[in-house]
Amino acid sequence: MHPARARLIHDRPQHPGPVLYWMHRELRARDNWALLHALALAEQRRQPLAVAFCLARRYPLAALPHFAFMLHGLRETASTLASLGIPFLLLRGEPGHAVADYARHAKIGLLVTDADPTRPKRAWLADLLASLACPAIEVDARNIVPARRATDKAEYMARTLRPKIQRLLPEFLDPFPNLTPGLCLDASPGASPGSPPACALTLPPWPAAAPAVDWPALLAEFGPPPPHFPPGETAAHSALAAFLRTGLPRYADDRNTPLEPASSRLSPYLHFGQISAQRIALAVQASPAPLEARLAFLEQLIVRRELAENFCLHTPHYDSTEAFPAWARATLAKHQHDARPFLASESQLDAAATPDPLWNAAQRQLLATGHLHGWLRMYWAKQILLWSPDSETALARVLRLNDTLSLDGRDVNGYAGAAWSIGGVHDRPWPERPVFGTIRSMTPGGAAKKFDVKRFVEAWTRPSLL
Ligand SMILES: Cc1cc2nc3c(=O)[nH]c(=O)nc-3n(C[C@H](O)[C@H](O)[C@H](O)COP(=O)(O)OP(=O)(O)OC[C@H]3O[C@@H](n4cnc5c(N)ncnc54)[C@H](O)[C@@H]3O)c2cc1C
To answer: DSSP labels for 238-286?
Structure first.
């Protein structure tokens, strides 16, 4: 693993003891740099390794389908880990405290965990570090170029981050070592892609009690997984394979139309860490799809996605209007008292009962499938700005609906997307219009030029979908 992925976040005296990987963002056994790093450190120290996941009592705006998707996926990950001889521990409670208690009980010598700049995760980590006696290392396994290595400040827009990412990409877009039952592959930088496993996995047994997880009982608590997105690592890789065959070749031309879209629909899998963005990028690079399509997709998967991480990492109030640039706050304030064409109530939005048939159809799609097409997501959010009394209310509504209804919600991409739509983050001023001021607007007329709006509305107005 590239050493710049890992960072010592808790400098405590070294003492022997097992290695614990606290997995909370990268919920996968395959292609996971944090797991690979924890494994390499355990082997170096000749210490046992276990993976712990803590199920929080609550998570802001998460709903049952989110938990069901996550836990069904984790069941598969736990079973893959078991086949590798790595115990999986399911803890419950307030994660920072529960992991700290377990680390004390198991006399952990080293903790490895996922990097995550969102506020709930930062709070969990602060709780843990307040009482953790051993050193802790954070690994950025989410971004291809680790966010802290790409740049040390909030980037103004994609144009300013892109060259930094492009310069570092050859260093970080390296192949993953294989992790196969009973064996580990030499993860040293010199290992050639696809070379055979170089060392036997010789970890001592986990010394503390590791109670078996009662998966059927746990899964029953959260209901069935969402029907439109089968959960788990295998399903994520099948979705990638289907996208490479059918979506990617058309991506440059058709990604922005919500009818028969060419987009990958991989965002729920990426959000829950069930697939690695780096694995997707490697597969896309190797695909025979036209270069233009591959580049268009990698721009979203790498530059836009890593720009969103950069936004949350360097913007403490990433989910508030305080995060908007000064020009955007000024123009929104200037137009705050402009007459709105319609003032929506929360319940009209919830029930897809606004005067705009396209917006209602998009909201129905979101309600029915837990997913909204990328172009429509921008339109959907911008109409909420148009129909709200002020930008604070609009942003809060967009985040509430996006985070509760969308399977990929509560993600850095969502905070950046909402701030882009409502507050001009990563964008520039556009010609001035009522309500929006110089924030870029999107209109039903613009949508009609892009795709067959009538057909989309009809598709999402059928009674069976309601
Ligand atoms: C108001 C609003 C809310 C959004 N909320 C979320 C959210 O909660 N979760 C989420 O993952 N994305 C969110 N996005 C970003 C984007 O719309 C989705 O990532 C994308 O539509 C997911 O569909 P896909 O996987 O088919 O994307 P594809 O077009 O196939 O792209 C592949 C991957 O690239 C990344 N990506 C694509 N577009 C963007 C983008 N604009 N910004 C950052 N990363 C991107 C995603 O990880 C995506 O899965 C939001 C955008 C807006 C405007």
So the answer is: HHHHHIIIIIGGGHHHHTT-SSS------HHHHHTTSS-HHHHHHHHHH
**Which numbered atom of ligand 1 lies nearest the CA of 381?**
1
pLDDT the model gives residue 5 = 98
Residue 372 alpha carbon, nearest atom of ligand 1 = 21
Residues 125, 118: Cα–Cα separation, whole Å: 11
What structural domains does the chain harbor?
1-141 (3.40.50.620), 143-183+232-314 (1.25.40.80), 321-465 (1.10.579.10)
On the question of pLDDT at 380 being above 50, the answer is yes
Ligand 1 contacts CB of residue 305 (under 6 A) = yes
Q: Is pLDDT at 410 greater than 90 in this prediction? A: yes
pLDDT confidence bin for 194, thresholds 50/70/90: very low
**CB 408 less than 6 A from any atom of ligand 1:** yes
Residue 37 Cβ < 6 Å to ligand 1: no
Report the alpha-carbon distance of residue 89 to residue 55 in Å, rounded: 11
Higher pLDDT pick, 89 / 62: 89
Ligand 1 atom nearest to 243, measured from its CA = 30
pLDDT at residue 18 is higher than 90: yes
Looking at ligand 1, which residue's alpha carbon is closest to its atom 51? Answer: 417
Q: Is the CB of 397 under 6 A from ligand 1?
A: no
